[in-house]
Here is the input.
Amino acid sequence: MLVLWLVRWLLFRVEFGTGLIKMRGDRCWRELTCLDYHHETQPMPGPLSWLFHRLPKPLHRVETAANHVAQLVVPFALFTPQPIATWAALAIIATQLWLVLSGNFAWLNWITIAVALTTVDGHLVGDLLALSEPAERGYPPLWFTVLVLAATALVVVLSYWPARNLLARRQRMNASFNPYHIAGAYGAFGSVNRHRHEVVIEGTDEPRWLAYEFKGKPGDPRRMPRPCAPYHRRLDWMMWFAALSPAFARPWFAPLLGKLLEGDRATLRLLRTNPFPDAPPAQVRARRYAYRFTTWRELREAGQWWHRTPAGAYLPPVTLETLSATARRAGFAPPPEGALTARRAGRAGGGRLRSRRGPRGRGARRRPAPGRRRGSGRSGPAPTCPADARRPPARAAPR
Here is the structure.
């Protein structure tokens, strides 16, 4: 029973902490206008996001107010006797299912639902489903009781810091207060973007530039947003942050382009389309576009879910030879020199190499660059909202 109370405390911190982050953050949450933008600008819109965005604005106000009730009022009922606690848990589950319908938040909503189910009264479920009473069980062994009491005492002590954080004026979001990462602080979407931008990566073998399409993130305006939750499309998610600020993409964006110039099969498997199946492109570039959901009329007449307009260059055209220098000038970390050695040697010896699927690229080994730091080509876990743009990436939490 003590363990179940600790789980309720976890659920309370997730919901109440997220609600406080919103009320202390963007003014649109207090004005009930955030959902005029959120369905369109969230990291990974889903198949119904276009419809949710086009709901009348009064319904968006109701939607926002209901979210505040679910996150700022209902969590206190988790600590009340049954069946009130069950109804509180069901309200939280209903809110999470609403988020599942309106967007793609990977496993975040589903794991919150799993935690909330622990609060539902098992006897009530048994009566509704006409299940037989469970068999009587004896008392647990002494060692197990001692272990549960010790774990409970540890969580209670470590909960002082996240509890104090909930009351702090400068509330921390998705933070850990001890090296064990026990009893942390959670939150998401303290601020909401008013406009959406996307980074589109293109390659060319001349004369035309062709776009690489991603599996989840918006690209082709005619493609309806796809469902992916509870699967987390990590690269697509990080591309959303890259469009918010190049600072998010500094460690990994240039190496990504280097992999595309190499025709790296493992990287290409992360994408939906490869416009250069026979051989890698000679050049790649990245362009920034402003995206918005189309109107009912635009969708009907043009068959486009998105309308996009150019918003400038993100990274100018580069080849394998110019990638490192161009990336440095643009403020991105260049790819490891050793990773491009084989490709450059191939070009010097007889022109551009074929894709790794071709005979020349098969089995080629790449030597790590001297002095490369461990993990320098990998990005950390994604933050959860644009307000984190000036902070190191942190783990995401349900909205």
